[in-house]
Every structure is written in C-alpha cells, then in structure tokens.
Amino acid sequence: MKITIIGTGYVGLVTGACLAELGNDVFCLDLDAQKVALLNSGGIPIHEPGLEEVVARNRAAGRMTFSTDVEAAANHGAMQFIAVGTPPDEDGSADLQYVLAAARGIGKYMTDFKVIVDKSTVPVGTAEKVRAAIQGELDARGVAATFSVASNPEFLKEGAAVEDFMRPDRIVIGVDATPDGERARELLKSLYAPFNRNHERTYWMDVRSAEFTKYAANAMLATRISFMNELANLADKVGVDIEAVRHGIGSDPRIGHSFLYAGCGYGGSCFPKDVQALERTARGHGQELLILRAVEAVNDRQKQVLGGKVVTRFGEDLTGRHFAVWGLAFKPNTDDMREASARVLLADLLKRGATVAVYDPVAMAEARRVLQLDLTPEQLAKVRFADSPLDALTDADALAIVTEWKAFRSPDFAQIKARLKQAVIFDGRNLFEPAVMAETGIEYHGIGRSILTRA
Ligand code: UDX
C-alpha cells in the first residue's frame, strides 16, 4: 500500500519504518530540510534501538523516501498519517498548529479519496478540526474529493518502539460510522492485517473514544507511578520496604506487577505532557481532574527526592562537595532528556554550590545541549562530562543514580568504594538490594527502602 507519513519525529519515523518493513511503499514528509537531508544520507536523528537498521534496509529496498515536498506527499499515500508534534501550549493544552498545518497541506493538493490517520497524541475533538481544515482547502480550490479522518494513537515506549510496533498488545482505531468511515476501516484493516493473523488485536471504536484512550492509558500509568512514589516516601518514614510491598500487591491480578516501581519520578515526552493536556481538557469542560492534579504535583516533588536525601546527609550548603551522577536520560535505552529527573537533581546540587561529574551511556551529547539551557555558564563550568561510570566517581563525596541503565546494575562495588571519597550511594531507581549493600560497607539510600538502611 502507498502510505504517507507526515512528520519524521519519533512517532513518524518509527511508524514509517515499520510500515515499510511490512512491505508498504512509505513516503515520509518533513518540513525540516536538514532532517530530510540527514535521513536521505543514511543518518538517524534519534537514538532508538533497531531503528537505524530498519530504515537503512527499507531505504535500500526503495520502500522509504524522505522529502520536503508537500504536494508529492499529498499525492503519494491513499493513507496519510499525521505524526507531527503536539507540544504543550502555555496553559498545558496540546498545541495543534502543526497537526492543522499538516491537514491543510493534504487539503491543498489531494485530488482523490484519502484516509487521514491521526497518529499524534491529540485531544478529543481534534479529528473534527482536521476534517474542517482539509475541507476548507478543498472548498477554496473547488475540488470535490472525499476523505475520512481516523484516529490511531500510538502506544510506543521509547527504547522499545520498534519492538512495540512490531508486536503490539493492542491497536486502537477510531473511525466514523459513515460510508467514508467504512472505507477507512477497510483500508486500515488490511494495513494492520499482519498483526492480527494469530488473534485479533484491533479495538475498533468511534474517533473521539480512540483519541481519549491514549490519554486515559498514559494518565493511568502516570497515576500508578505517582501513587507508588507517594507510598515509598511514607515507607521511608515508617520503616517499610516498598519493594516488598510492590511484590505483595503486584501478585494480585487486579493490580498486576507492571509500572509499580517507585523511583525519582517519571519524565519523557508523554506522561508529563499528556497528564497536563487531559487536565486542561477537563477544565475546558468545567471539570477538575483532582487525581491527575495530584499525580503531577507528586511527580514534581518526587524529582526533588534525591536532592533532598543528599541535603539530609550532607547539609543544605554543598559548597566544596563533589558528586557523581550516573544516568541522565529520562529512562534507559534512549538519549531523550525531556523532563528527565536528572535535570532537577543537577540544578539542585549546583545551586547549592556542589560540583558534579556526570555519565550516561548514550545521552552525553544531548546532556551537553539541554544543560546549556538549564544552567548558567558558571554552573555549567562545574559539570564534568565523564568518560565512563568509574571515571565519574573519582573523588566524589557520593554517587547518585538517576537512570536504570543495565550497565549500572552490576557494578564492581569494591571499585566504587575505592574511587569515592565517601562510600555513599543515593539510588533513585532502587537498583540494588539494601541487604547486599550493607555487606559491601557502602552507605545506601534507596527510595522507600529505609527499613533496611536504618539500623
Ligand atoms: C510512555 C508510555 O508507556 C507509552 O505507551 C506511550 O506511548 C508514551 O509514553 P515512554 O514515555 O517512552 O512511554 O516511557 P515509559 O517506559 O512508559 O516510562 C516513563 C517514565 O516513567 C520513565 O521516566 C520511567 O523511569 C518512569 N517509570 C516507569 C517509573 O518511575 N516507574 C515505573 O514503574 C515505570
């Protein structure tokens, strides 16, 4: 099938590459000429395991084209996927300017029936705005072509996006109950048929419910994390091990084991933005989402928990202190630092006069970029970008772990002890067992694990 993907960001590129891998003829449109040039020369603008190989293979096979040509894009695909960014507005609602510009681009040039598929995370009612934008262009040109707008939100996790796309646990598609909506359903059904061979994974619904489903999923997951983080903070006060509690409750199938890990807060491009946008939608309809307001507030506070533990241990004034920080990305297997907890910790330590040495397996270049935005030049001068985890430790008063990279999970504790000035670890992701740490002689501060570190 001929597919057009508008937007070669994270979602668009993964979707385009995976649809090409299934044998489709995929045209990727992006208005950023530099990015298109990079993609056409075999480069990849993001770090995502497996993506580079899939793109290279399908480019070589002629199934993936990258271009800035809006007209060619509109003419290529019978299905036009909109996968552009929806950054938060000043008030937290999703900014739809790129989505609507993409829609107008389609309307300006389309000549025959098209299915427009909203892949971007967009608030309820966006499909109607997309429809109006396209119709407006068609009317202006006096063209009578028909089209249908469907909603097909993505549930990809960064770091596992190719795998998630290729082995989806569900495919959510919203289509209109109209003859054109029926045509959209048939086209999407055959596009996704390879995923439904063994059992049906597609959930068909109306467009608004599909749009809402994406927000509901992310809000629910963010809620679980903030809930566990709040319990973990209490666990620290009352001498309870949150990890034991996690096992104890997760074994109840109504609760389940996933997404119950207490830590130093969630980040990334989705949870913070989507929770805010859903709250904003509710407010626009005169409803206050009290739970989500708390989810957000708890997360903001949780990002400060590691800094708080450092202060409790070393005092408010950290002048003359030096800390090693392992992990900068908001989670492992990505270089994405959007809303990353490490940014909050670093700002806090530096503000209090400390110096730091940081290390991340892939996010070092991205860290240099974002820390320039977060910090003053004087603060930035106090950050050393280390060459390895061990290198970061040299002469540090303590080690803080912010991202649960596999490479940090089984370190040589004797080496850590030897390199640190003081054998202290603040573990924002509960990577180690406090009982094991006690044997190493390293002072260990996890999240919600105080029962084992109090004695
Ligand atoms: C999320 C959703 O999982 C995905 O379905 C959606 O399409 C986009 O948003 P992503 O942002 O890539 O994906 O990351 P995810 O793996 O969900 O983790 C988000 C954040 O939550 C990370 O900062 C992670 O460290 C944190 N987290 C996750 C916890 O603190 N505890 C947990 O138990 C799980």
UniProtKB/TrEMBL annotation:
Pathway: Nucleotide-sugar biosynthesis; UDP-alpha-D-glucuronate biosynthesis; UDP-alpha-D-glucuronate from UDP-alpha-D-glucose: step 1/1. Its EC number is 1.1.1.22. Substrate binds at residues 155-158, 214, 259-263, 267, 331. It catalyses: UDP-alpha-D-glucose + 2 NAD(+) + H2O = UDP-alpha-D-glucuronate + 2 NADH + 3 H(+). NCBIfam families: NDP-sugDHase. Belongs to the UDP-glucose/GDP-mannose dehydrogenase family. One of its GO terms (biological process) is UDP-glucuronate biosynthetic process. Keywords: NAD, Oxidoreductase. NAD(+) binds at residues 30, 35, 86, 121, 158, 273, 338. One of its GO terms (molecular function) is NAD binding. The keyword NAD applies. This is UDP-glucose 6-dehydrogenase. The keyword Signal does not apply. The active site is at 270 (nucleophile). It holds the Pfam family UDPG_MGDP_dh_C. It comes from the Bacteria. It is an enzyme of class 1 (oxidoreductase). Residues 324-434 form the UDP-glucose/GDP-mannose dehydrogenase C-terminal domain.
